User: Fold this.
Amino acid sequence: MTTFAPTLYAQTFPRSNARLRDLMLVFSGTVFVALLAQIKIPLPFTPVPLTGQTFAVLLIGATLGSKRGAASMLLYTALGAFGLPVFAGGASGMAYLSGATLGYLVGFIIAAYLIGKMAERGLERNLRTSLLPFIAGTLVIYLFGAGWLAILFGFEKALALGVLPFLVGDAIKMILAALALPVAWRLVR
Assistant:
């Protein structure tokens, strides 16, 4: 089974080269997460800002699939590490990567892969099952993000700084993604 973006791309450009398609999709995913990363709301009680990145990661994993989704997140992280202002609020560089958000960035890569694997099995196509990939991906992001924060600040502070403030917002993001994908598949059919 294929995921949404390659299906739509193949319908739109039926004679395109598969490698060019994959490059375009990976690059588009990278741009999408970089754009949503610019939606940044600093929270005074945590070093981790509220951003649109997690929503982008959910959609990228589900629409691009496991390999392209993970590649897109790897490219995003590499571009930010090399100095392009793609991280939250236009941040970049190795110093940013070694800060409080490192675990989340690693989690983005793994979550995109996992969500993509689940989407390749068709779980994002049906309203009854579409929430499952996004819950799994969000848990991975929390695991790596809070795990890194626990190394920096301790377990209790990691939960207080890196998980609890984001639960409601991430629940909304998961529900929006879970509603969007089945609708998008119906439109493509």
The chain has one domain: 4-188. The two ends are 14 Å apart (CA to CA). The chain has a mean pLDDT of 94. The CA atoms of residues 59 and 138 lie 12 Å apart.
